[in-house]
Write a structure and sequence with these properties.
The complex is a heterodimer of chains A (464) and B (330).
Chain A: E1 2-12, E2 17-26, E3 29-35, H1 41-44, E4 50-51, H2 64-67, E5 73-77, E6 82-85, E7 87-92, H3 105-114, E8 117-122, H4 133-146, E9 150-155, H5 169-175, E10 179-181, H6 190-201, E11 207-209, H7 214-217, E12 222-223, H8 226-231, E13 235-236, H9 238-255, E14 259-261, H10 267-278, E15 283-287, H11 315-327, E16 332-333, H12 342-345, H13 362-371, H14 377-392, E17 408-416, E18 438-446, E19 449-453, E20 456-457
Parallel strand pairs in A: 1-5, 1-6, 7-8, 8-9, 9-10, 10-11, 11-14, 12-13, 14-15, 15-16
Antiparallel strand pairs in A: 1-2, 2-3, 4-5, 6-17, 17-18, 18-19, 19-20
Chain B: H1 16-19, H2 40-52, E1 70-75, H3 81-92, E2 96-101, H4 110-122, E3 127-132, H5 137-142, E4 148-154, H6 160-174, E5 181-185, H7 192-203, E6 207-211, E7 227-228, H8 232-235, E8 241-244, H9 260-267, H10 271-274, E9 282-284, H11 297-300, H12 307-326
Parallel strand pairs in B: 1-2, 1-3, 3-4, 5-6, 5-8, 6-7, 8-9
Classes of the chains: A alpha/beta (464), B alpha/beta (330).
């Protein structure tokens, strides 16, 4: 079946496009982007809704699909909405295998779809750790049956993520792993990090770096500073992140390995990445929505839904991350979606686990930067789709050029965000639940298959 | 084929180019310590001499100057083939090999190597072959003694006779060295064989590519004039010869590669990989082999392998080197 996404504002920095266009899709690929045709269907169809063949066909003069309804043309009216390449979240903890009570491939990818995310990178800090080609294959095969969106796999850098011996990254790469990380924990031994970067050069895969000095951060709960001190909690100093980022940028520049800094949270780190890029280093970086939205003074009481690693920082850090996204220093927005069971998050703040979920709030929180004039539409799409695809080597994704995978998200930037009761994640540990957010993925296609329509999972009842 | 030159004092007149410099002796070195400081002329002289000695029998050893001389073999690292090769070369030249293996070799430093050689010198030995794990130690010692020293391997630095026998094997089998595309695969970082080969081959105008995991390539190697390719399957496509280095299995403990099976899969020379190359691509290996780690048995024992020829050529190269050292002008 062919799909036409009609009359939306197509935003695709990969082809420097921001204009009202029709997007034609067939066989799971983008077929063509054409100037938008005007037709009667667009005035009566509900935004993001589906006009089934025969119900509201586009009446395009002389256009082939319109004159051949028997082809089975599905029309998605995107008038007044944005049509962008599907979001790629390169930092997602799906918790499978091992912690399926908190999340699973099935639920995590449903949460992704609702958030407009068509590809997630699954982090390997599961139980067992994904550190062998057999586990990479197992996850890929589970994803083919359980996942609603594309799942790509990150393998561990070291065996068991213990930071000591290199894992079989070559064989994992052959089994389909697209990146390597010990995320959740830093690689404290600089020699191991150096070897890993050198070794990965031969595989042309990035190392996703969780920058933290565990000695400096030990026991810490929130950003070290006045807010944390007032609560009587131990702090995590910014230097815990910046020192490690400095070390690893130095190692990347020396070895020539590809380094990607995960969830950077400090102004210093943004400056470090900016300077490294000016020198031509193969360094990229991501930031999480909570780090460009909230500060440590926003932490409500002892609510562990505000506890994540790295922690919420100061206002100057939030502003530096926004600026880093604006000028492209920070390549990607990635959620660090980290589901935890409510019972564990209900522990005293110091004992509760680190992490917040983010797939369902990624789009509204990033759209807020556009709304405030801090980000252009194109720079938003670059950060949520185009650059992540480049970093992960997903050549068929991150854009809407003809022949690319038909992973498409239709965004209503003015609609109310999906309410928390409609989230699909198994967990609810988010500082944004119940908050008034704006922006919603009204329709989502994954490889041409419609997984979200009318702002809800295809086939499920509307929430309103 | 040129007849063996009895002495190097007289220019052989093989080419007009050499005849143009009659005043300069062809060989004037006291020692052979590495290929890096050899001239093209010196390398060619050794290769030509090795070719000339190939038909000599032990009884008609060409260098009577060495008859009755003793060759001190001082190895502080285990060695079978290099040592046996030097012993055989020495006997072919009428020399008497004297073996010394220094116990507890890891404690041996340059100074005690020097003491050993000085003591044997005092007993009348003028030729030594030495191997040590300390890079540069043999160079230091050679500068302090009057005897002739041949470096049979110093740490990760040089192993000149191995490189010369590799070059000799290439020249005998492929007819030339200039313009040959030679691929060196494996642990370049720790390999003296790789260094001596690279320096000799580049002087002889071969095009050299090194291939291995990023962890096993030394920093700055691109400035030596070699190409780097981390992908063996790509690098081998245009190779005329591939020299497979021995992998020290204990390197895994240093995180230089994750496992032997992964090393084999990515950098092992198997028939499947070799089939990507020119069908006449020659396979070399300095030995001893880790079968089915860096090289598969099928390749090591296959028709493209020159590994046993390398062993035979080693004796000729070592005879050539010893005779040149022994015959050098006083």
């Amino acid at each position: 079946m062919k799909t036409l996404i009609s009359g939306g504002l197509v935003v695709d920095p990969s082809q420097n496009l921001e204009a009202v266009r029709d997007v034609w899709i067939s066989d799971g690929k983008i077929e063509a982007i054409r100037p938008a045709a005007r037709g009667p269907f667009s005035s009566r169809a509900v935004p993001g809704d589906i006009a089934e063949p025969g119900a509201a066909r586009p009446a395009r003069q002389g256009s082939k699909p319109a004159s051949q309804p028997e082809n089975g043309l599905r029309v998605i009216d995107a008038k007044g909405q944005w049509v962008i390449p599907g979001l790629i979240d390169m930092h997602v903890h799906l918790r499978e295998p091992g912690c399926e009570t908190e999340e699973s491939i099935a639920t995590g990818t449903r949460a992704a779809a609702l958030g407009g995310v068509t590809t997630v990178l699954a982090m390997p800090n599961t139980d067992p750790v994904v550190d062998s080609p057999a586990l990479v294959k197992l996850l890929r095969s589970r994803a083919t049956t359980d996942a609603l969106v594309n799942v790509v796999i990150a393998g561990a850098v070291t065996r068991g993520q213990k930071g000591a011996e290199l894992a079989e990254m070559g064989r994992m790469s052959q089994a389909g792993a697209v990146a390597f990380t010990d995320d959740g924990r830093p690689i404290m031994n600089a020699q191991v990090m150096r070897r890993a970067l050198e070794y990965l050069k031969g595989l042309d895969r990035p190392l996703l770096d969780h920058c933290e000095d565990e000695n400096l951060s030990a026991g810490g709960v929130l950003n070290e500073g006045a807010a944390c001190a007032a609560k009587g909690l131990p702090g995590i100093p910014k230097a815990s992140e910046t020192l490690m980022a400095m070390r690893d940028v130095a190692l990347a520049e020396w070895t020539g390995g590809r380094l990607h800094l995960c969830h950077i949270s400090c102004a210093e780190t943004v400056g470090l990445v900016r300077r490294a890029k000016r020198r031509g280093a193969a360094v990229t970086a991501e930031a999480a929505p909570h780090h460009f939205t909230l500060t440590d003074s926003d932490v409500e009481g002892y609510d562990a839904d505000f506890k994540m690693n790295p922690p919420l920082r100061a206002i100057e850090d939030v502003e530096a991350i926004q600026e880093g996204l604006r000028d492209g220093t920070i390549d990607a927005v990635a959620t660090d979606h980290a589901p935890h069971a409510a019972a564990r998050k209900a522990l005293p703040m110091a004992q509760a686990p680190f992490g917040v979920i983010g797939l369902e709030t990624l789009l509204p929180l990033t759209l807020a930067l556009v709304e405030r004039g801090l980000l252009t539409k194109k720079s938003l799409v670059r950060a949520v789709s185009t650059r992540p695809a480049l970093i992960l080597g997903l050549k068929q994704k991150g854009g809407l050029r003809p022949g690319m995978d038909a992973d498409v998200t239709v965004v209503d930037s003015q609609a109310a965000a999906l309410p928390a009761q409609c989230w699909a994640s198994k967990s609810r540990n988010s500082p944004f639940k119940g908050k008034n957010l704006k922006g919603r993925a009204t329709a989502v296609l994954v490889g041409g298959r419609l997984v979200v329509q009318g702002g809800n999972l295809a086939g499920s009842p509307p929430d309103r | 084929m040129a007849t063996p030159a009895r002495t190097t004092r007289v220019p052989s007149g093989r080419s007009s180019r050499q005849a143009a410099y009659p005043a300069k002796p062809l060989w004037s070195r006291k020692d052979l310590l590495g290929t890096r400081d050899l001239s093209v002329r010196e390398i060619e002289l050794i290769l030509d001499r090795a070719r000339a000695v190939r038909e000599l029998s032990p009884k008609t050893g060409e260098s009577s100057a060495l008859r009755g001389e003793r060759l001190g073999l001082i190895f502080t690292e285990p060695s079978t083939r290099t040592r046996t090769s030097f012993e055989t070369a020495a006997r072919n030249l009428g020399m008497e090999p004297l073996g010394f293996s220094v116990q507890n070799s890891s404690t041996l430093k340059g100074e005690s190597l020097l003491d050993t050689i000085r003591n044997l010198e005092a007993l009348g030995t003028r030729f030594f072959v030495a191997r040590t794990e300390a890079s540069g130690a043999i160079h230091s010692v050679a500068a302090q003694v009057r005897s002739h020293i041949v470096n049979a391997g110093d740490g990760a630095h040089e192993h000149p006779t191995q490189a010369l026998l590799d070059a000799f094997t290439l020249r005998e089998r492929l007819g030339r060295i200039a313009g040959l595309r030679v691929l060196i695969v494996g642990d370049i970082l720790h390999s003296r064989v790789a260094r001596s080969n690279i320096w000799a081959l580049l002087k002889l105008k071969a095009r050299v590519t090194v291939c291995g995991p990023g962890t096993l390539l030394p920093a700055g190697i691109e400035s030596w004039g070699v190409r780097i390719d981390l992908d063996l399957r790509r690098a081998i496509r245009d190779a005329d010869a591939v020299n497979v280095l021995r992998l020290q299995l204990e390197r895994q403990k240093e995180n230089l590669f994750p496992s032997l099976s992964e090393y084999h899969r990515f950098y092992g020379l198997t028939q499947e990989v070799l089939s990507l190359a020119n069908p006449r691509c020659l396979v070399l290996h300095p030995g001893p082999l880790n079968r089915d780690v860096e090289i598969s048995s099928e390749v090591a024992d296959g028709p493209q392998s020159a590994i046993l020829e390398q062993v035979a050529n080693g004796v000729r190269i070592r005879m050539a080197v010893l005779s040149l050292l022994g015959n050098r002008p006083a």
